[in-house]
Specification:
The complex is a heterodimer of chains A (about 650) and B (about 375). Chain A is an alpha+beta fold and about 650 residues long. Chain A contains 23 helices and 23 strands. In chain B, strand 1 and strand 2 form a beta hairpin. In chain B, helix 5 packs parallel to helix 7 and helix 5 runs parallel beside helix 14. Classes of the chains: A alpha+beta (about 650), B mainly alpha (about 375). At the A-B interface, helix 1, helix 2, strand 1 and helix 7 of A face helix 7, helix 9, helix 10, helix 12 and helix 13 of B.
Chain lengths: ~650, ~375
């Protein structure tokens, strides 16, 4: 009984299955019938139509690559432009043996080992039906020599391509950036933003700096040409064409002369400098030292140059102004002072008597002042001038970390400045919540104390520091920093300004700003920590020096610079704005391992301000070795060396 | 001795199916020679792919179906683990995350699932052959939906479509109720607009361009326009081998892979196309006969699914090349250049042969 039902089930099941299979068989035949009738429609009924189209397909659409926009400084000095040059290119899929072909070509046209290496690298990145350059920048003779031998090399062609060139080479390389060959990642991004058809025929795309940020404006719109081609695919005649729309030109806020003075002022030092017009946010100079030659990247950098740049201990490829992060050191003090004043603490005539150290209540740990024995009687203004640590230790503790950081955050610390370049770092403005999230530890009062002098967890980028200085100089009105001042239509020359944008207005008591400014002006006068920087200046400079420790120093141990490896020396910082009563330039300078803000970073800022405000070019460097301030007549020289 | 060895080798090979496959692959090599611009290296490399895939076919044909049945669940689980691995650690290339590096080997887990999913579902339904309820179908649909969702997310629309259809065929052949099917069809009609919003921009664009390829003649519509021109200009008898102007003048993109049928259709015309369809019909027909004669539910469902999935491959690829279906990345089976999908395909045919040739041993 049971057996019989199972058997019947089995048969029923098989029957049902076959029924369904038969249904699918019918479906398959129907679908193939659809395909068959589609073939019939395309290949019989529409044959004439498609036959004509196929004939017309001998008329090919050839993309015409638009001219990439130029990059000019504020005075029209060209920083990036294009030129046509011949390249010799191989389409690997059309060539029997690529190696042999290159060897044969090299018999009459010079092909260097570097050319071969680059070719290999580019070939690995391209499809086999794409042509890859084996030689770029052929001269007329070489081009002619190949033309004569061309019949021997099917699949090898001379093409005229647009090349990008950066005539000022190293100048402002981190800001201008560079273009490079379009790679898979770029292609994906372009296809996602539906821009792929606009890049037909384009080989290059902005990879860093302004070339990357303003890619859309610089590239332009690709045009097309209808060309009749013969059976070998060579163009015979142009039938019609839609011209390309050239990319827009970028006119920068930067002054290339100022930029060059800034770069040269660094000498062999590493570091960064940013100069901003505080009134409108124009970035006047953007220095990252050491720098590199962006021309190396345009055709794909060769591995030796890449290695040299990438492995260098000086890290020339790092965009220091916005990606280098440093402790602000004493340059933080004017902002802390302002926080205190605005909170109603330390208003003059309040002053302290500085014993040379600060102690937390109930603790014997001494937070030392940089000056043993202290500065005597110090009020808030003098505390800035002489960079009195003791004063700011107490002030920070009195304010509390939350009030301190929330106030200074209005000056842009701890967040991006939103400059027109990609990859900016936000630095760090520590709070107890941050510490708990990051380290699962509670906040200690001692950490508040050292935050008051810009030590501890606080980290800034040089750009942030310049922006904070600019906001202070502009009395609390924060402008968005802009590298590009205006964008120019390349066809009609009409420029559209990149407008100045107010990003924040910090409510400040003008009287408090005046106290801080006066303290900072005194920094560059005799008795201040950077008296030599202000020496002989016809305009008043408000400034602050700073030093950032690279390695920690133990309690009771004295900092002995002769014993320390050069790379472990302190970073020198300097912020300034001028003229102090109505500032038009704000500068932040960081000299890595430059030891003292006043002696290494300060003179660089002075050269920038002298040129910008007076048009004065720095005198050629004195060939003598040694620190730049060696001839300083100031009696405060001794003090300077300590902060 | 030699003949004994010979008969050992072909013991589990179905000669009709094998003959049709070999002939189709041979046609494929000739088309590839033309499509690649007469590149002998390309043809040799594809021949090597075929050799390897045939080896896999032979091994699969020699594994008895009851062993496969036991492997179904482990293969599926392994496949899922790898898919999840791809989701988190996969290598991104051309905007999709499909590959996984394990030690020195680089694998594409979605390929494994092309066999793993129908195997698992056939196993699942064969174990419950007497009391099939709606809930069984719901579970089956879930087992299918999970890997499909992962593959769609990679994103790989072509492969997820093939796997979805292979699973659907098992569900259908296992007796999914007609009422439910019609209900689902209505439901799909309602859900289509919602699905539309979930597609990637480029996938949406492909469907839009399908209805109007001239919207973007140099971008997304280029493939479709050039392929239909190639087919149409082939006419009745074709332009002749190596004489397709579209193919030889570089107008056809991806002409050795997804769009190889356009080269075939241009050079061999309507006659060639119909003959190729006939070849595919023979293969599918043989697969259906094997499924119909299979001994148990597992074999039946698996054989049916493998055969119908092969049909889906053919229909979707030719449909997209001739402009009646959207451009999804599905190669033309046995013809398109590429080793990975060929191996999976012939593995499937090996299983078909195993199902057919192991049967007699058991019944006797």
């Amino acid at each position: 009984m049971n057996y019989r039902s199972e058997l019947r089930n089995y048969q029923l099941e098989q029957h049902n299955f076959r029924l369904r299979l038969a249904f699918m068989a019918v479906l398959v035949l129907v679908c193939f019938g659809i395909l068959g009738s589609r073939f019939f429609f395309l290949q019989m009924m529409k044959y004439d139509y498609f036959q004509t189209l196929a004939e017309n397909n001998r008329i090919s659409l050839v993309p015409i690559v638009p001219n990439r926009g130029l990059i000019l400084d504020r005075n029209g000095v060209i920083l990036a432009h294009n030129f046509f040059a011949y390249t010799l290119e191989i389409t690997p899929s059309k060539v029997k043996n690529v190696e042999d072909t290159i060897n044969e070509i090299s018999e009459f046209i010079e092909v260097s080992a570097a050319d071969r290496k680059r070719f290999k690298k580019l070939r690995a990145q391209s499809h086999s039906f794409e042509s890859v350059p084996i030689r770029t920048h052929l001269n007329e003779t070489e081009a002619a020599r190949f033309a004569v031998n061309r019949y021997r090399f099917p699949g090898v062609e001379i093409r005229s391509r647009l090349f990008r060139h950066y005539p000022e080479n190293n100048l402002g390389a981190h800001m201008i950036g560079y273009i490079g060959r379009i790679n898979d990642r770029d292609l994906t991004a372009l296809s996602e933003s539906n821009e792929l058809s606009n890049y037909k025929g384009s080989d290059h795309i902005g990879k860093s700096g302004l070339e990357q940020y303003y890619e859309r404006q610089l590239h332009g719109t690709t045009g097309f040409q209808q060309v009749e081609i013969d059976a070998d695919g060579h163009a015979v005649r142009v039938l019609s064409s839609t011209p390309p729309v050239p990319g827009d030109n970028l006119i920068l806020s930067m002054d290339s002369k100022l930029q060059r003075i800034g770069e040269e002022a660094f000498g062999d030092h590493r570091g960064a400098l940013v100069a901003i017009n505080p009134k409108n946010g124009e970035v006047l100079a953007y220095v990252s030292q050491p720098t590199f030659d962006p021309n190396l990247f345009v055709d794909g950098i060769d591995s030796e140059s890449w290695k040299a740049l990438n492995d260098s201990i000086d890290k020339p490829l790092i965009n220091r102004p916005m990606r280098g992060i440093y402790p602000p050191g004493s340059t933080f003090k004017p902002f802390v002072a302002l926080a205190g004043l605005e909170a109603g603490k330390r208003e003059p005539p309040f002053s302290i008597s500085d014993p040379g150290y600060f102690m937390l209540p109930g603790s014997s740990h001494r937070y030392r002042d940089w000056k043993p024995g202290g500065h005597g009687q110090v009020d808030v203004q003098r505390a800035i001038t002489v960079s009195c640590d003791t004063f700011f230790y107490g002030l920070a503790l009195d304010l509390g970390i939350e009030r301190l950081t929330s106030f200074v955050s209005h000056f842009g610390f701890g967040r991006k400045t939103d400059i027109d370049m990609k990859g900016e770092m936000s630095g760090l403005l520590p709070t107890p919540e941050w510490k708990w999230k990051r380290w699962k530890q509670r906040w200690f009062p001692g950490e508040t104390v050292i935050t008051g002098i810009g030590q501890g967890y606080t980290l800034v980028t040089p750009l942030q520091l310049a922006q904070a200085t600019a906001i202070l100089a502009n009395k609390g009105v924060a402008m968005r920093p802009r590298l590009v001042n205006s964008i120019q239509n390349a066809r009609n020359g009409v420029t559209t300004p990149n407008p100045a944008v107010v990003v924040d207005r910090v409510a400040l008591d003008p009287h408090h700003v005046e106290i801080v400014t006066q303290g900072m002006v005194d920094v560059t006068l005799p008795g201040g920590t950077a008296a030599s920087v202000g020496a002989g200046s016809p305009y008043a400079i408000a400034a602050k020096t700073g030093t950032a420790q690279v390695i920690g120093i133990k309690q009771n141990e004295k900092y002995n610079e002769s014993k320390i490896n050069e790379r472990h020396l302190d970073h020198a910082l300097f912020i300034a704005y001028a003229p102090a009563d109505d500032p038009t330039i704000a500068v932040a300078v960081i000299v890595e391992n430059g030891r003292h803000g006043g002696s290494t970073a300060g003179p660089i800022a002075r050269k920038i301000m002298d040129y910008y405000l007076l048009g004065k070019e720095p005198s050629p460097p004195v060939p003598a070795a040694g620190p730049a301030v060696v001839n300083s007549p100031e009696p405060t020289h001794e003090e300077e060396l300590h902060d | 001795m030699i003949s004994r060895f010979g008969s050992y080798v072909v013991r589990h090979i179905d000669s009709f199916l094998m003959g049709s496959l070999l002939f189709t692959m041979l046609v494929g090599l000739f088309v590839l020679y033309s499509a690649s611009g007469q590149n002998v290296d390309r043809v040799l490399s594809q021949a090597a792919n075929m050799g390897a895939a045939l080896g896999i076919l032979w091994i699969a044909a020699n594994i008895a179906p009851q062993h496969l049945e036991r492997l179904a669940l482990p293969v599926y689980i392994l496949g899922m683990v790898l898919l999840v691995g791809v989701f988190f650690f996969g290598e991104i290339s051309h905007g999709a995350r499909r590959w996984l590096h394990i030690g020195l080997v680089r694998i594409q887990p979605s390929e494994l699932m092309k066999i793993g999913v129908p195997m698992l579902l056939a196993w699942y339904f064969s174990r419950r052959d007497n009391t099939l309820r709606l809930s069984n179908h719901a579970i089956g649909a879930l087992l299918l939906a999970i890997p499909v969702a992962f593959i769609m997310k990679q994103p790989d629309l072509g492969t997820s479509l093939l796997i979805a259809s292979s699973g659907f065929y098992v569900l259908f052949l296992a007796g999914l109720s007609w009422r439910l099917l019609i209900g689902l069809a209505v439901f799909a009609g309602v859900m289509a607009p919602i699905f539309w919003t979930m597609l990637h921009d480029y996938q949406r664009k492909r469907i839009e361009i399908l209805f109007d390829p001239y919207q973007d003649p140099l971008g997304a519509g280029y493939h479709t326009i050039q392929a239909t021109i190639a087919l149409g200009s082939g006419g009745m008898a074709g332009k002749g081998w190596l004489h397709g102007t579209q193919s030889q003048l570089d107008f056809l993109p991806e002409r050795t892979t997804d769009f190889i049928f356009a080269v075939f259709g241009e050079e061999f015309g309507l006659m060639g196309n119909l003959l190729l369809l006939l070849l595919f019909t023979l293969i599918i027909g043989r697969g259906m006969v094997i499924a119909a004669q299979a001994q148990n539910m597992f074999c039946r469902l698996l054989a049916g699914s493998i055969t119908l999935t092969f049909f889906t491959y053919v229909f979707v690829n030719i449909g997209m090349v001739s402009g009646i279906l959207p451009v999804v990345g599905v190669p033309l089976p046995l013809i398109s250049y590429g080793g990975t999908s060929l191996v999976t395909l012939l593995l499937g045919f090996g299983i078909l042969m195993s199902i057919h040739t192991h049967k007699k041993l058991v019944t006797s």
